[in-house]
Amino acid sequence: MRAGGGRRASGGLDMAGIFDTPQRLAKLLGSVSFRGTERPLSPVEVSEWLREGSAELGGDDEVMKRLGMKKSTWSAYRNLLALPEDIRGRVCWGKPNPDTFKIGFSVAHYIAEGLGEREQRVLVNTMWDHERPYTAEEIKRIKSYYKSGNPKSMEDAITHILKIDRPVKNVIYILISKITKEAYERLRTRSKGQGIELDAMATDILSSHFSEGAVTSVRIYPTATKVTFTSRGEDELDSHMKKTGCKKKDIIEKLLLDITG
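RESULT FIELD:
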């Protein structure tokens, strides 16, 4: 087909090409140039029109030249055509929408690029299983790890990367409470006798009263203690206070001395 020429639709009627029709060209330009969510064409329509324009002008380079489009942008749009048809219909401008299951263009084109249909569907189908949908950067990291050959499946790659990118938040709770001179000396004497640093020994003692990981550190001073808990540790501390009848200012000394005798 000659550059600039129209294309023949079914039934033998001439349909003007994109670059022969100002209205169509304006829609395409408005869609690839504008940065908002309200654009004349959807992302997939842009992909289809770019493919049509390439056939019309005899090659990709001429279309990119006329639209002032970079190769990376061109590839991003054309990648969408590699998605299964049902997924293509869910690609939108802007961010993914968990209410409509729409997938943002910046995420969708990374899902489409260089993956088979099964892997694409795994990424799309698991996108809504988490507190927030995947970001474009997370998709790139998941794909990179998947292609390294280390994970056995795309599901394993997703689990691995999300553990790194989305660690469980540990809410920190710090309690500073008093300690009597007598209790301090008993703890210090015990640590010397065992050849253990005082704070390390106190951490071990206090941790024995809580679930694993609930106590993160203990500092012992001559007149006070400073204990750092996770949010779970804070809840368990409340249980100890109810059980012993101690107030916060006394509970740490009580728990430490329960071990030392």
